[in-house]
Amino acid sequence: MFQNTKRIILRSLLIIFFYLNTSQAEVIKKFQISGNDRISNETLILFSEVKIGENINENNLNEIIKKLYETSFFEDIKVEFENNILFINVSENPLIQSLVIEGIKKKSVVENIKKIINQKEKSSFVKNKIKEDQNRMLNILKANGYYFAKIDTKIKNNDNNTVDIIYNVQLGDKAVIKNIKFVGNKVFKDNKLRKVIASEEARFWKIISQKKTLDIQRIMFDEKLLKNFYRNSGYFNVIINSSYAQVIENKYFEIIFNIDAGKKYYFNNFELNLPDEYDKNDFIKLTELFDKLKFKPYSFNRIEKILDQIDEVALNKNYEFVSATYNESIVDDNKINLIINLKDTEKFYVEKVNIFGNNITSERVIRNKLLTDEGDPYNEILVNKSYNNIRGLGLFKSVETDEDTNDIKKTKVLNIKVEEKPTGEIFAGAGTGTNGSSLSFGVSENNYLGEGIKLGTNFSVTDDTIRLKFFMNEPNFKNTEKSFNRGFQRSENDFLTKYGYKTEKTGYNFGTSYEQFDDIFFSPTFSNYYEKITTNSNASSQKKKQEGNYLDFLLNYDLTLNKLNQNFNPSDGFKFKFSQELPIYSDDYTLINSIDYTNYFQTSGGAIFSVGAYLSTANSITSEDARITKRIFIPSRKLRGFEPGKIGPKDGNDYIGGNYGTSFNIASTLPGIFTEVQDLDLSFFFDAANVWGVDYSSTIDENSKIRSATGVALDWFTPIGPLSISYSLPITKNSTDVTETVRFNIGTTF
Length: 750
Description:
Layout: H1 2-24, E1 26-27, E2 30-34, H2 41-48, E3 55-56, H3 58-70, E4 74-82, E5 85-92, E6 95-102, H4 107-116, H5 130-143, E7 150-157, E8 162-170, E9 176-185, H6 190-196, H7 216-231, E10 239-248, E11 252-260, E12 266-273, H8 284-293, H9 300-316, E13 322-331, E14 335-344, E15 349-356, H10 363-367, H11 380-391, E16 396-406, E17 411-420, E18 424-433, E19 436-448, E20 453-462, E21 465-474, E22 483-495, H12 496-499, E23 501-517, E24 520-535, H13 541-545, E25 548-562, E26 573-586, E27 590-602, E28 608-620, E29 650-651, E30 654-655, E31 660-670, E32 680-692, E33 707-718, E34 721-732, E35 742-749
Parallel strand pairs: 2-5, 6-8, 9-11, 12-14, 15-17
Antiparallel strand pairs: 1-3, 4-5, 7-8, 10-11, 13-14, 16-17, 18-19, 18-35, 19-20, 20-21, 21-22, 22-23, 23-24, 24-25, 25-26, 26-27, 27-28, 28-31, 29-30, 31-32, 32-33, 33-34, 34-35
C-alpha cells in the first residue's frame, strides 16, 4: 500500500511540473522593436536568434539579452514577453566618429597600435573596452622601449550619437638597460656572457642601437642563447632559473639572469644503429669522428657535426629517404652516451613551398637557400638544411616552419614563415695605446632593395693612416650560390717620420666567394690600384729609387678550410687559410703568398689553448726590386715584445720589411683566476717570428735570427670598452731590433 501511494505522489508531481513548464513556454507571434536607429529590425531579430512560432520562457529572455550584448552594438537592452509579443527595447552604443592618438610621432607605431586595439573608427563605442585598449597600447609601447609611458583617454560626446576618442600618450624616457648581470653558478665571466646574448648595456656611443632598450621578448630570446651557449660548452643540464628586469635609479633597468650551470659533461660512448640493407663501410668516417670526440666536452654543435656527416653520406650514397634520431644518456655521473638511429622513411614528394612574411625581402633570396624544390623527393636532411640556410641569411628575427602532409597523394607542402628585422647598422670605434690612437666609423645595409645585398662604407684614422672604403656584396649573384662583391678604397699612409716614405693608394676590386667543398671556401678577387710613393730628404737612396707612380692589376684569392666550432671565441677546431696575390699587370711584378693556420682545443679544466703558424713571402718575378709597400711586415698581434714593424732588415735607420716573414704562436687562457673581478681574462703566450730577405741591395743587414718573447696578457671589458694589456719579455733578439715590454690598447668597435 505504501508503494502505491508513493507512485501516485510521484505521478502527480510530474504532471504538475509538466503543466507549469508548458504554461510558461509560450509561442512568439509578434516582435515589437524600439530604440534602434542604425541597426534595422531585421538585423536585431537575427542577432537575437529567435523566430516567430518558437516557444519562449524566462531563460530564453536572458539568453536573448546576452546575445545582443555580445554584438557590442548596444549600451542598454530590455526584453519582455507579453501576450505572445516579444518586446525588445535597445539603446545603441555611440558610433566612433574619430580615434586620435596624440604624443607619438612615429607613424609605424601609431599604425601598429590601431591594428591591435578593439576600438576602431566607424565602429560602435564600448566603454568597458577602453581599459583593455590602453593596456594593449602600453604593451606596444613597451615593445618599443617606452616602459614609463602613461595614457590619458578623453571621450568627446557629439550630438549625433557619435563620440571622438582621444588617447593622449606621454611616452616618457625610453627604458634603457644600464646593467646586465649574471648570478648563480654561472661558470663564465660576465663579459663573455654579454657577448652571447642579444640585449646590450647602454653606452653613450650606441646612439641608434635598439638592443640597449628593454624588450621582454628579447630577454626570452637571450635565455635561449645562454642555454645553447652553455650546452655547447659541456653544461648539459644548465638551467636558467629566472630572468627579470628591475627598475634602478627610477629611470633605468637592470636585467638579471640567474644561471645554474651544473656539472660539465663529456662524451663517453657512441653507438650507430643502421637499417640492415645499409653498408656499414659507407659510414666509416663517422666512426673516426666518434673516436675524435670521445672524452671531449659535450656540445650540441659536435652532435651537429655527426648529423652533418650522416647527411653527407646519405646524399653521396643516394640514401634519399633517411631519418636520423639520437638519444642521450648520462653515465658515471658526468659522461654522456650517444646513440644514433638511422631509419628509412616513407617516400614523399614536395608538392609546394609557401613563403610568408617577407614584406621587404624578395622571395627569390629565400628560395635561393632551398636545397629542395617543388617536385623533388622529400628529404628531411635537405629540408632541415634549407631551413637553417634561411636562418643563416641574418635577415630575419625568426624563421618558423611547418609541413602539411597528404598521405593519400604522398606529398608534402612546406610552409616557411619569416619575420623580418631591421638590417641597417652603424658602428664606430676608438682606441689608444702604446702604438698610437685610432678612430673608425661606418654605415651598412644588409638587405638593400630586399635582395639580401650588403653595402656600406667605413672610414678609419690612425696616427699614420687614413682609409676610406665603400663595398657591396651580393650573396646569391644571379641566383647562384656564389657571392659577388666589389668595392672602392682610398688610403694614405704617412711614414715619413718613421720610415722616410709616404704612400697614397686609390683603387677598386671585385670578386666572388663560395663554398667549394664542405667547409672549404674559395674567394678570388680582381683589383686595380693606383699608388704614389713619395720620400723625404732623409730617405735612403734605395727608397728614393722607388719614388714615383705605380699601376697594379691583380688577382687575389683565398682558399680557406674552416673547422672551428664557432667563428667568435672558438674553443675547438682549426682554421687554415692560403692567400696569394698574382700580378696580371704591374709596374713591378711581385708575387705574394701567405699561409695562416690556427688550432684550438680545450682541456677538461676549461683552459683554451691555441697554436698558430704564419708564413708570408713577397718576391719580384722580374729583375725589378719588390716595392717597399709590398714587402712583409709581421702583424703586431703575432709578435709581442717588439715594436710593430721594427725588426728585420734595415736601410739606414729605416726598417724596410723583408721578402719573407714567419711566426709561431702559443697561447692559453685560464678562466676563473680572478674570481673577485668580473670580465677579466688572463692568458699566457709565447710568440716567435722573423722577417728576412732583401732583394734590392746586398749591403743591407738581413739577419735571419728568430725573435721570440713570452709574457702574460690581461683582457678586461671596462665601461669605456675593452682594455688589453700585455707584458712581454724578449727571449731572443737582434741588436737592431726595438723591443717593447708593455703594450696596451683601449677602445671598442660597435
